[in-house]
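Incident log, support desk, overnight shift.

02:14 A customer reports that sequence design results differ from what the structure should imply. Their input is reproduced verbatim below. On-call engineer (initials T.W.) acknowledged and began investigating.
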């Protein structure tokens, strides 16, 4: 399974690199990143409170959370802030992502004026959302052009199929022009055929991070409720994040960070919600392995069978899979230990086709 990649997009001076640093605990310079031409790539650990509870139970030598990769794309060069949001190169890169995270500016900072002259997150959500749809419209335009060029000299049967493809492509394009993204849409056979060589970026899960100032933290619940009303549809999600504060906290020592968070008296950080949203939006769940050597969360796609999940741990375990000993996390915690789950009958044997569920604690039995 390749690393899951979340593409960070947004208008200049929205705080994309700040959010990237906060998520990955990076120290990339902010403010001047739009002058660069390459993307920042970093790894974020997925917050999972289950790991702390399991660590207390098993006292392992090592604790390993699941991870996702963030890719922070550069904005347009200075002086070209009003250029199209997505260049052809950026669209190609987005097609390799598993989800899109749109960072939207919700903070005031006179020393870094908004390129559109004022801070209006709802306007910016609509504008970048339109640009994503426009990128797909352009992709379909090019696809129609290629199919049309292929009509010359084609046989009658091929010509009929190509004309049908063009008709379907124009229909999909009309939906995009009407503001309907492709995410969550089940394609019929004709659409699958017509789009077989074209990956539309509006197919990807779409998440919004509203980057707020520290003074707006008390309004986080209110702001997230408004976000939820505006960011709707299948495979979407949103969170309000005090990006600058989260970046600064992420650069502290762990003990100092915990102490500072406690002094703030805030609830779950928006950053943690955002990372978990990205993880789930990319279609991932975690199964868990436990023991005195290691407690670990393993990312797998939803609906993964047990034998394939075993391959995440080691290819030999997948190849020599015998069975999986499985107990739900909540049942393990309630019982107080693995031996107790056997007595309670909540530890069960599952075969290779068992569909792994989020929070399953698994021990794989194998022979090679």
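02:41 Re-run completed on a clean worker. Output:
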């Amino acid at each position: 399974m390749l690393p899951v990649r979340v593409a960070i997009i947004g208008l200049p001076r929205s705080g994309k690199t700040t959010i990237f640093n906060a998520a990955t605990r990076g120290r990339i310079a902010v403010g001047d990143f739009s002058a660069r031409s390459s993307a920042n790539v970093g790894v974020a650990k997925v917050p999972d409170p289950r790991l702390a509870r399991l660590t207390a139970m098993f006292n392992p030598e090592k604790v390993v959370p699941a991870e996702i990769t963030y890719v922070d794309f550069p904005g347009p060069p200075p002086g070209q802030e009003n250029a199209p949001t997505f260049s052809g190169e950026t669209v190609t890169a987005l097609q390799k992502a598993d989800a899109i995270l749109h960072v939207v500016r919700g903070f005031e900072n006179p020393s870094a004026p908004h390129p559109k002259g004022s801070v209006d997150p709802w306007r910016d959500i609509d504008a970048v959302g339109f640009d994503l749809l426009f990128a797909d419209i352009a992709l379909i335009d090019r696809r129609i052009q290629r199919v049309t060029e292929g009509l010359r000299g084609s046989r009658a049967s091929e010509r009929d199929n190509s004309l049908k493809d063009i008709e379907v492509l124009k229909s999909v394009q009309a939906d995009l022009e009407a503001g309907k993204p492709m995410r969550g849409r089940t394609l019929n056979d004709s659409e699958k055929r017509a789009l077989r060589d074209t990956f539309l970026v509006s197919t990807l899960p779409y998440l919004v991070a509203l980057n707020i100032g520290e003074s707006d933290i008390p309004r986080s619940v209110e702001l997230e409720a408004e976000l939820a009303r505006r960011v709707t549809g299948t495979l979407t999600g949103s969170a309000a994040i005090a990006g600058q504060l989260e970046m600064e906290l992420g650069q502290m020592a762990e003990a100092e960070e915990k102490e500072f968070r406690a002094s703030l008296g805030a609830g779950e950080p928006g950053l943690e919600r955002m990372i978990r949203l990205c993880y789930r939006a990319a279609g991932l769940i975690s199964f868990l392995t436990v023991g005195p050597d290691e407690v670990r969360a393993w990312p797998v796609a939803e609906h993964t069978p047990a034998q394939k999940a075993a391959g995440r741990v080691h290819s030999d375990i997948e190849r020599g899979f015998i069975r999986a000993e499985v107990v739900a996390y909540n049942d393990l915690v309630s019982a107080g230990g693995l031996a107790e789950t056997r007595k309670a009958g909540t530890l069960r044997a599952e075969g290779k086709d068992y569909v792994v569920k989020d929070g399953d604690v698994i021990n794989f039995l194998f022979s090679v």
